[in-house]
Write a structure and sequence with these properties.
By secondary structure, chain A is of the alpha/beta class. Chain A contains 4 helices and 40 strands. In chain A, strands 8-11-14-17-20-25-28-31-34-37-39-40 form a 12-stranded mixed β-sheet, covered by helices on one side. Chain A has a 10-stranded parallel β-sheet with strand order 9-12-15-18-21-26-29-32-35-38, with no helix packed on it. The first copy, chain A, has a 9-stranded parallel β-sheet with strand order 10-13-16-19-24-27-30-33-36, with no helix packed on it. At the A-B interface, helix 3 and helix 4 of A face strand 22, strand 23 and helix 4 of B.
């Protein structure tokens, strides 16, 4: 079920049409018309849903959804009479189909009369600037950018085409690529945490670098990305960063990194390409984290990690070692003779 | 001592009057007039304080407070000549009495000339909208709502009567009940962290749900609550959520949950009623946390927890097991023969 | 290399001039002219860099920097022909020299026509108030303060001279000293997390205190500092607080404390002077943390810590104990006979 106050522009499709769009096979009535999406447990006969995670097997079996994207091997446990969009990647099929049902609306171009755009800022064609937004002199926006209400773009910042900055954000000292999306309340480019601490004195270290963000990167809400002390804090192309993530000065992320909510990375640490970090994980300063590394949620990484490594724990270590230790400690506390994880 | 710049409207009461209001018994001079509140260690003769936590026993014994809410069993260690408001629940008695001394001021109604309210937004009687606030078309506010300065209410959002949204917040795709309070800088209803990660591609999953917030819920500052991917992210009636809490898409909280600062809950996890989470605790995605569960500060929950359970640790487990393990490990490191927590 | 869009006002100096300013000795060509700064690995012949952390030894040896601040004992491994500014404190020398190259620009005074300053607010001479900022009645700003775009200063707040509040922040119920810097998106002075939880009822405890911030304190982006329930939440003079830090009501920090990113401190805990907390560390409520205490990143402190203590772990304990336990557990899981950390 879709709330038309927020998603009015539905384009109804039959199950067969959605299957074709999504590269899926239909099982059941392909003429079923879909006009909404919903999770399995609340979906009605005009809603599209998906089933992939076995934890929701019962909800799948009992679902009243109009159509369900599912794996071939799950067809046997589908509810009687269900229409299935069969795919080896049901979430992908669902994503494509849902995008066909609800194509994203383009924001009408135009600068609000209540926005504050300096005459010396340069905006490409098709930009939208909402009420209360501030764009300072020398800022340069590519075509078709959207600057949300009450967002502040400081002097000299550059954005490539088709960026969308949501409301209430602040961006300074930044060079941003194309198609970058930045969530509400993000703070990008402020001075990092740099000083020489000699109590009672604290001598500030001038923060003379920038933030650079690659094409297609996505940042969630209320993130904080400090500019480099000298040189850049870098977010590679296609990185996906969730809410409340903190990147300190001179952190560098490669391409396509995925950082879940409330992750923090201390100054000057460098991550390779396609690194994944679970929620609330942290990385200490001045570390090298290789390509394709996986860091478990809640971990605290205090040493370098080689390409392809998977680590977890606090302090973080190879994930198998951590699991073994956790098991050993449990066994120890239960009174085992030794704590050998293999036996536990 | 109260700073009249911030709390000018004191209504002086005698100790006896306050005791009557708060359902407490007076010990000592009931005619003592109170005009302020303060903590035990700084309170003066016109200030009301309270004593409940034994850690502050010395401050209680030495306090110059004009009157102190305290338990009956603590009367014996009160300072000589003290006026006590005796109650089995001294914090509750204090809260009621302090509310009598400083009744909350109603914000005068009216829409600031510097606010940006769309003609197609509907506002109930008695609403106040501060400078720089943006309310888009189709938003609907019940009576007596307050929208803080520079806060953005997106199209179609609905708020019940007597909601108070503090400054600098952003709300979209949300259906909000009555008497809800949302702190400054909160980000509510933005798209969640949903994509199909197939490096180098990331296919976005359309985020077509909402946020629903029940009557009387309270959110602190700079929280981030993503809308559902399909269906709602839900915050039950009476939930109390502290600052910098992150709820991912499709998280559902029952009634009256208490989440302390910097808590994070990953996507689609469901909490029952009256769950309590300590500060910086985390819950992984797709979990079921039962009614009345307690989760210790800093814990990382990676498995379901049944009704009434109390868990702690990283990864979280039953709290007794965690304490026993902590003790076992300490003993082990000190060189004990085994690490049995019972002996430790 | 410096991006002139953000840092235009360079004052070129020779290496000898910078050395004189920074109290360093020159090795090599003192007439080398510097016009920028950069990290070792990207610096060019007109850039100043520094080398202190041995982890960057290779980058130092290969650097093309025009001049490098370095320790005397590292001169031997400097690149051939390098110009060195020799100092026992190379970061301090760099900070002073970089400040000479790029003296901070003063913000021109003046109140934006798009700001909303109440007639009953008092502003000292030389203040700058940016577009969309709101300053309410009774607020009082010392000379030369800067209030960033879309920031809200509530009624009665006082700031000493030369404070700089960045964009999109919110300040209420606060008494702030001189030269205080507050990052974008900070939330200061809102009501703390105070209620009597008696499900299904939650009786709010009136939050009648303030926030007080001492001279020279620095706060990063998106921090949340709740006001006291009664009495003040206190940040001592010269404290340095990184991004996304949360201080609950009635927390008190002494002078010069250093809190790294995403730290959280629960209600009423008191820290002495010059306490240091690593990133993502937490302190439970109602604790006393002595002067000069060090708390490791990611730790969870649940007990008092005496002056000068160093703690780590979850729950936190003396750092040596924690390291010993970590080693013991590793040994245990590998199948060692005991888990004695000394042997491990």
């Amino acid at each position: 079920m879709i709330d038309a106050r927020f998603f009015a522009a539905v384009v109804p499709h039959t199950a067969a049409e959605l299957a074709a769009v999504a590269g899926a096979d239909v099982a059941g009535d392909g003429d079923r018309v879909l006009t909404g999406v919903a999770p399995l447990h609340t979906a009605g006969p005009a809603d599209l849903a998906f089933f992939d995670n076995p934890a929701y097997r019962d909800a799948f079996a009992a679902s009243d959804a109009g159509a369900i994207c599912a794996r071939p091997e799950h067809a046997a446990i589908a509810p009687a009479g269900a229409v299935l969009l069969i795919s080896a990647q049901p979430v992908r099929a669902y994503a494509v189909a849902a995008g066909a049902l609800f194509p994203p609306a383009a924001q009408p171009a135009g600068i609000s009369a209540a926005a504050h755009v300096d005459a010396a800022a340069r905006l490409g064609p098709g930009c939208a600037v909402e009420a209360g937004a501030v764009i300072e002199a020398g800022a340069e926006l590519g075509a078709d950018c959207v600057i949300g209400a009450n967002t502040v773009i400081r002097a000299g910042v550059s954005l490539g085409r088709s960026c969308r900055i949501d409301a209430g954000a602040t961006i300074s000292h930044a060079v941003i690529g194309e198609r970058v999306r930045i969530g509400p309340g993000c703070r990008i480019g402020q001075a990092g945490f740099g000083f020489v601490p000699e109590p009672p004195e604290f001598l500030p270290v001038p923060q003379l670098g920038r933030v650079s963000i690659g094409d297609g990167a996505v940042l969630g809400a209320n993130c904080t990305i400090d500019r480099g002390a000298s040189g850049d804090t870098e977010i590679g192309a296609g990185c996906h960063i969730d809410n409340q993530v903190h990147l300190a000065h001179n952190v560098r992320l490669g391409r396509g990194c995925i950082l879940a909510g409330q992750v923090g990375i201390a100054g000057s640490s460098v991550l390779g390409d396609y690194v994944r970090m679970g929620g609330q994980a942290g990385v200490a300063g001045h570390l090298n984290i290789g390509d394709g590394v996986n860091i478990a949620a809640g971990s605290g990484v205090i040493r370098d990690v080689s390409d392809g490594g998977t680590v977890g724990g606090y302090p973080a270590q190879p994930i198998r070692d951590w699991h073994r230790q956790t098991a050993s400690v449990r066994r120890l506390a239960r009174g085992g003779k030794d704590g050998n994880g293999e036996a536990g």
